[in-house]
Design a protein that fits this description.
Blueprint lengths: L1 E7 L2 E10 L3 H8 L16 E2 L12 E8 L2 E13 L3 E8 L2 E13 L2 E12 L2 H28 L1
Antiparallel strand pairs: 1-2, 2-8, 3-4, 4-5, 5-6, 6-7, 7-8
Length: about 160
């Protein structure tokens, strides 16, 4: 289990990985339901999927969310730009709090279970100063919570 954020030129890159002791199809199936994102997002964000209950996931799917960042209501719209079950998918922010946010999810079967990797490339309004003062800590909390919750759900 690991979460790391590094700066690369004008963007930030988050890398997170965890091995879940389950089968690939089971893990990918969980991630295939956008509504499961509510279970693995910390309560302080008050995160809710606004798109209908049955979202057919594929390249081109658009999903709408509401959340709160430090009490400020935010609408987030993401596009599933790549859908390659059961190994990979990519979601990209179309509307939200970042200049851009591109999140690649990969799933690899190993002897110990499924290696789940999150790779996020993003930029924030206000650049490095805003990132270092506010955003980095929140993003680290979100992905650390996500990994702890996934371990609980899949162990």
């Amino acid at each position: 289990m690991s979460v790391e954020i590094v700066r690369f030129e004008n963007e930030f890159r988050l890398s997170a990985e965890i091995t879940l002791p389950q089968k690939l199809e089971q893990v990918f199936s969980y991630f295939s339901s956008a509504h499961n994102l509510e279970q693995i997002t910390p309560a302080f964000l008050k995160f809710r999927v606004m798109t209908s209950e049955n979202i057919p996931m594929s390249s081109g799917t658009i999903i709408n969310y509401n959340l709160r960042v430090h009490g400020v209501p935010i609408r987030w719209t993401s596009l599933i730009s790549r859908w390659e079950p059961p190994f990979r998918f990519v979601d990209e922010q179309l509307r939200g709090p970042y200049r851009y946010w591109i999140h690649e999810h990969t799933f690899e079967e190993t002897e110990a279970g499924v290696l789940v990797k999150d790779s996020v490339r993003y930029q924030v309004f206000g650049g490095s100063l805003v990132h270092d003062l506010f955003v980095k800590k929140d993003v680290m909390k979100i992905f650390t919570f996500r990994q702890e919750r996934l371990l609980t759900l899949f162990s």
